[in-house]
Amino acid sequence: MGSDGVKAEIAIIGGSGVYALDLLKNPKTTTVSTPYGKSPEIVVGEFEGRKLAFLPRHGKGHTVPPHLINYRANIWALKELGVTRVLATTAAGSLNPKMRPGELVLLDQFIDFTKCRSATFYEGGGDGVVHIDVTQPYCQELRATLIKTARERKIELHPRGVYCCFEGPRFETAAEIKAIRRLGCDLAGMTNVPECVLAREAEICYSAISIVTNFAAGISKAKLTHAEIAELMADNIERLKKLIFLAIPKIPTIRGCGCVKALEGAVVRV
Fold first, then answer.
1. Does 19 score more than 60 pLDDT?
2. Which distant-in-sequence residues (6+ apart) come within 8 Å of 128 by Cβ?
């Protein structure tokens, strides 16, 4: 149970530029103590009859860099609050000329180039060993709901995109971008992994929408700056919020995807 008995069903994890939500009714702020440390402040409220939680991934005012985000504490805290679905947002640089700055991309695959992050809740010993299936790393039910909502409401959304996650906090080199482009990546970012993997281990449905903030290194002729990313996010964040809040009432109350049974067959038995 979360702090003070606060509970939620659906969580929104806000990335760069998404630090607050203004549509929640009866908002309450809570933190959750986890085996991995305390969570950041989480705002819990109501929207269209659903209990929502909002967690700013980088903390208030973007104080935590991507490589130091406590991903395990964040996902554990949401699980403790009763969350079964997560809608996440990310900022990303584009390698794909069809995915232009300001556009929304619904992720469907990732490639992981992070180096130093704790990427699992299961590290042997008493916790056991788990080999989780991430053939489809993002919840297919949530993805279908977001795609349908975008089409019905005429919100431009690329329905799939391959996201490459780098360690950060530096931006990528032109050579790195050239390499991952050859591997079939569409976007480059710093935060979606291991977040989506931990959600799968927690048997939480997880989907992520990226806002393209710039063309990546070696494609863009301009110097890459966080100020540029923040400015573009500010200009386009309302469309992202609109899509999320239009989709929330359409999310089935009973889960019909495989995320709820993600640990079945994944635990090593001796």
1. no
2. 122, 267, 268
Strands 104-106 and 205-215 turn out to be antiparallel
Q: What is the rounded CA–CA span in Å between residue 140 and residue 239?
A: 22
- 164, with CB counted inside 10 A (0-12, 13-18, 19+), is buried
Would you kindly state where each structural domain of the chain is located, as residue ranges?
3-261
Q: Determine the Cα–Cα distance for residues 184 and 32; give it in Å rounded to an integer.
A: 38
Average pLDDT (41-63) is 90
**Residue-wise DSSP of 226-260:** HHHHHHHHHHHHHHHHHHHHHHGGGS-SS--SSGG
pLDDT at residue 5 greater than cutoff 80: no
Going by C-alpha positions, the residue among 187, 19, 160, 167 that lies closest to residue 101 is 187
The answer to whether residue 221 scores a pLDDT higher than 60 is yes
| CATH code at 3-261 | 3.40.50.1580
Q: Which pLDDT score is estimated for 233?
A: 73
Distance CA(24)–CA(76), nearest Å, equals 22
Burial (Cβ within 10 Å: 0-12, 13-18, ≥19) of residue 204: buried
This model's pTM is above 0.85:
yes
Kindly give the pairing relationship between strand 25-30 and strand 42-47: antiparallel
User: Which single residue is written with the structure tokens 């990335």?
Assistant: 15
145 touches 91 (CB < 8 A): no
Angstrom distance (rounded) from CA 74 to CA 88: 12
Q: Give the SS3 label for residue 130.
A: strand
